[in-house]
Amino acid sequence: MEYTFFSLTLINIPLVLSEFLCCLMLISALTRKRPDKKRVVPAYILYSLLLILPGDFFYLRGLFDSPLIQLVNMYLEVAACMLLLKAAYREPWNDAAVTASTAVFLFWQINDVDGFFLADNYDLSVPGDLAAYMAVNCLLILALVGLAAWFISRKRLDEEYRNFLSGGRRFGFWRVVFFLLPAVRVIAVELVNERIMLNNSNPVVSLFLLLIVYGVLNYIFRCDMQTRRIQEQQMHLRQQELYIQNLESVQRDVRIFRHDFKNRMAGAVLQADEGNLQAVQEFITEVTGEFERKVGEKIFQTAQLGNIQIAELKGLLAVKAAEMQRREIPFRLEAAAPVTQTAIPAGELCRAAGILLDNAAEETEAFLRKREADGKRRDETFSNRDDLGKYSGIGVTALFCADETGVSILVKNPARSQVPLSRIWKEGYSTKGSGRGMGLTSYRQIVESYEHVSSMTYQEDGFFVQELKIGAKGG
Amino acid sequence: MIPIYLCDDDPAVRRAVRSELEKEILISGYDMEVVCDTGSPRKLLDAARENGKRGIYFLDVDLKDGKYTGFTLGQEIRREDTRGFLVYVTAFGELAFETFRYKLEALDYIVKDDPEEMFRGIRRCLNVITERVQNEQEEDRPYFTVKFMDTVRHIPVDDILYFETGGKSHRIILHGIKGNIDFTGSIRDLQKSLGKQFLRVHRAYLANVSHIRELDVRDKKIVFTNGEECFFSRKVKNELFRLLDLDFQT
After folding, report:
1. Among A304, A408, A459, whose Cβ lies nearest the Cβ of B178?
2. What range(s) does the HTH LytTR-type domain occupy (chain B) (predicted)?
3. Interchain contact, B167 vs A90, CB within 8 Å
């Protein structure tokens, strides 16, 4: 049977479709993301063109013997996969390159397993061999890759992989290694190739490579994960300490107040004896007012923090509150109902809340500095109710509202001037000077990557408000 | 006439608030009346339902009622009277008021432990409410209603610059003069419901024609009155020119 460009293309269509589906499975397993369904089909068309046309050409010219051509073909597949990642998964190019290389590498390693059961190369000019080849490469491979994808999520390798991707520069070297894996495969097969069978694959080499890669990377990632876990634990300890310090200071204040209160109570009793009702009334107003000022605010804040029942978030807020206290930025936290969980991972939640709080703190600090320069006192803040609607004061306000529909977070700060809304989402834009302002961009990325998360940004009565809503799962 | 409702467990506080309200209404000649003062949330709700008008509600935060707290009573009132004014009366200076304002659109809170301070608070509230009602009467503009997760927001149509399709499917980003908001919807439906003031200038954008400041024909960009930009497609270029010319003439 002679192959023509047309017949080869016909054969390649199901093969490429199966490879495409395999890549989808592997990518989804590794990144734990779902592709945008509308974009999968156009991505598939592009993918097939990139694979089939050069593949046909190489095959007809008998070029697949050459390792160089194999290498070229391999990286064409990587490029096609990158396009898929970019279009349907919206991964940045850098991550797309790494994930595409990994997926292609894994696909070929798994694909080679059938070599263990073969005595000879398929002779694609014999119809029987062709049928067997098609069955193995279209159907069996799907099952095997499905198994591999299951293994990845079962062993939580995807978690490690995502950590690796989000690790950025720390893993620069390993990113290059991942990108080179397909090349390593071609070269390794070529080096040991006995040219007896399967001239461009070798199941033993493939399996060996797969095991080495799995072992080495597992070790490295696990080590890294452990270091990070220790750091996280230390941070938690520090956060707990802050929380305890806060409670202790409330206790101290209450003790002092009690001492003072008892002395003054004795005076009030004397005045009551004399029938001086007005003095007693004044005493009551004064004492309650004083209590509110000295202890009430602290108790209130501690109770609010107590309502945040996601450990990571509570820690983050305790740290941010302490930091703002140090920088003399008034901070008010409200969490009227317990916040126990959100539909996004705690890490992402903390990142988003941290970005909003940091921005609000910086802006407020600048605002206060400007105000001070204008001759106003710093302590005219939360207690100052100059006008209705504005008495939430000059400081950072953070609100966490949890109910059955989900959790809303609102962060509010006074704005020095109109913030140019159209520009804050542009990468690198910041009112704080060039080279900064990545915060809001990564915030935007978090919002964009979850279906049930919405955000809102607006300015109102001289305040800049950021609202984040995280819907309950399935809601 | 705007009805005023009071709900507080303590009859003494109710008496004090009521007499101050009545005094203030008389002195300032406000078009308001205290129609209900009660310790029972249920009675208040019944009275409000019966009256059916937009009201002013002075509510105790810590109600000693089995079913209602100040907050849940506020929620119930909001269901009936979406545009009413909620004012909370509290014994503590500390109240998660931002949460009340955010969730219930509460207007203000007043602290009852110092009578003078409380009366000042009442006067301030009535004053602000009167101003707001007057302002609202003067402005009669169409609003665009958007559902932001579980809450509903009303945005004046004139304050909208353009809509953009978001990264996620069915996600629309509204770009307004005062801010941005994400919501779920379809740009085609928006185009239908908003009418001629909005033009589909690009596959991903629906622009408010009256906010277009200029066209950057070379880069195919629309510049809005506040400097924001979006793209337009070649197809609508002529239509845009025509509309803008018309706009400039009128």
Report:
1. A459
2. 155-246
3. yes
Q: Bridge-partner residues for B153, per DSSP? A: B146
Between the alpha carbon of residue A31 and those of residues A27, A110, A178, A389, the distances in Å are 6, 19, 15, 46
Q: Within an 8 Å CB–CB cutoff, is residue A454 touching chain B?
A: yes
Please name the member of A37, A90, A399 whose beta carbon is closest to the beta carbon of B102.
A399
Do the chains contact at B228 and A422, CB–CB below 8 Å? yes
Q: Are B84 and B54 in contact (CB under 8 A)?
A: yes
Q: How many CA atoms lie within 13 A of A30 on its CB side?
A: 26
Restricting to A residues 45-74, those with a Cβ less than 8 Å away from any Cβ of B are none
Q: Let me know if B130 is exposed, middle or buried by CB neighbors in 10 A (0-12, 13-18, 19+).
A: middle
Query: DSSP assignment of B147-203, as one string?
Result: EETTEEEEEEGGGEEEEEE-SSTTEEEEEESSEEEEEE--HHHHHHHHGGGEEEEET
Q: CB–CB of B182 and A422 under 8 A? A: no
Task: Work out how many domains chain A is built from and give that number.
Answer: 2
pTM for this one? 0.65
**Fold for the domain defined by B2-138:** Rossmann fold (3.40.50)
List chain A pLDDT tens, one digit each, 475 residues.
677 888 888 888 998 999 999 999 999 998 888 888 888 899 999 999 999 999 888 888 888 778 888 899 999 999 999 999 988 888 888 889 999 999 999 998 888 877 777 766 777 778 888 888 888 888 888 999 999 999 888 887 887 888 788 776 778 888 899 999 999 988 888 888 665 545 566 788 888 888 988 888 888 888 887 888 888 788 778 877 887 887 888 888 888 888 888 888 888 888 888 888 888 888 887 887 777 777 877 888 888 888 998 888 888 898 888 889 888 888 989 998 899 988 888 888 988 999 999 989 988 888 888 888 876 655 444 444 444 333 446 789 999 998 888 899 999 998 876 665 555 554 444 444 433 445 677 787 788 778 788 888 888 878 889 999 998 865 4
Beta-ladder partners of B248: none
- Determine the residue of chain B that is closest to A426 in CA distance: B228
Nearest to A285 among B98, B114, B169 (CB): B114
CA distance B73 to A329: 35
The residue count for chain A: 475
CATH topology classification for B143-249: OB fold (Dihydrolipoamide Acetyltransferase, E2P) (2.40.50)
Q: Is A441 exposed, middle or buried (0-12, 13-18, 19+ CB in 10 A)?
A: middle
Query: Predicted ipTM?
Result: 0.76
Q: How far apart are CA B156 and CA B141, in angstroms?
A: 7
Q: Containing domain of residue A464, as a range?
A: 308-475
* Shortest CA gap B1–chain A (Å): 23
Query: Which tokens in the block code for residue B128?
Result: 């602000």
Residue from B94, B148, B221 to probe the interface with A (highest A Cβ count within 10 Å): B94
Provide the shortest C-alpha distance from residue B99 to chain A (in Å): 7
Q: Do B148 and A451 touch (CB under 8 A)?
A: no
Residues A194 and A314 in one domain: no
Same domain, A172 and A57: yes
Quick one: A190 and A317 in the same domain?
A: no
3-state helix, strand, coil in chain B (%, to 5): 40, 30, 25
Give Cα A248 to chain centroid, integer Å.
35
Across the interface, which of B94, B98, B181 has its CB nearest the CB of A297?
A: B94
What residues contact residue A164 under an 8 Å CB cut-off, 6+ apart? A171, A174, A221
- Tell me if A465 sits within 8 A of A457, measured CB to CB: yes
Helices (H) and strands (E) in chain A, counts: 15, 5
| Number of C-beta neighbours around residue A134 at 10 A | 16
Please give the residue of chain A at the shortest CA–CA distance from B96: A334
CATH number of residue A357's parent domain: 3.30.565.10
